[in-house]
Specification:
It contains seven helices and four strands, in the order ββααααβαβαα. By secondary structure, it is of the alpha+beta class. The chain folds into two domains: 109 residues, no CATH class; 43 residues, no CATH class. The protein has a two-stranded antiparallel ribbon with strand order 1-2. Helix 1 runs antiparallel to helix 2 and helix 2 packs antiparallel against helix 3. The radius of gyration is 18 Å and the shape is globular. This is WbqC-like protein family protein. InterPro entries: WbqC.
Length: 207
């Protein structure tokens, strides 16, 4: 589920990710309009153009020597060409989410949170969405611990699992020592069809 009715947070992962370059790890950020727009939901965030061509040049420079860059470059470049036509951050993120899921062979259905009736805020809203979807298990990233009330889910009979991004299997990377917290494109460009195996191994890192 794409939970884009949640509040946009500056300097978070909503509009940026990290790439591993010859000069170290760098942020790759999609510029967005925030001036005068306080507490806006993610699905209302607009992009400041241009941005896509600069992103692509950064990726090309960082990964052109990666074993599977040449093979995957046309596909990823195509995502950027489509994304460059979009005005909203959520539409850009959706393009990349579907594209990456496809390369990884995922058949999980991806829908927006507007597909389910829900009310309330924070944990209450998430619980309403899970109930509407008929979920019995909820997987969350660790940053949600700051506001998430796990007891509400437990009382509703829904098991909460937390992703642990540390300690997952290392894979061959360019430019020195292994870095965990980088874009999944790093994994794809470096391992190609083996990327799915690393992702599956990472599923053990649930707490």
């Amino acid at each position: 589920m794409i939970y884009d009715s949640a509040q946009y947070v500056k300097r978070h992962w909503h509009n940026r990710n990290r790439v591993k370059t010859a000069n170290g790890v760098e942020w790759l950020t999609i510029p967005v309009v925030t001036k005068g727009r306080f507490e806006q939901p993610i699905d209302q965030v607009e992009i400041e153009k241009p941005w896509a061509e600069k992103h692509w040049r950064t990726l090309e420079l960082a990964y052109k020597r990666a074993p599977f860059f040449e093979q995957l470059a046309p596909t990823v470049r195509g995502w950027y060409e489509r994304a460059d036509k979009e005005a909203r951050l959520t539409d850009v993120n959706t393009i990349f989410l579907h594209g990456i899921a496809g390369l990884l062979g995922s058949t999980t259905r991806i829908v927006g949170d507007d597909a389910y009736p829900a009310s309330g805020v924070k944990t209450e809203r998430l619980l309403a969405i899970c109930r509407a979807a008929g979920a019995d298990r909820y997987l969350s990233g660790p940053s949600a611990r700051a506001y998430f009330d796990e007891s509400m889910f437990s009382s509703a009979g829904i098991v909460t699992e937390w992703m642990n991004y540390q300690g997952y299997p290392e894979y061959p990377q360019l430019n020195g020592a292994f870095e965990h917290a980088v874009t999944v494109l790093d994994l794809l460009f470096n391992t190609g069809p083996e990327a799915r195996r690393y992702i599956k191994a990472d599923q053990a890192n649930l707490v």
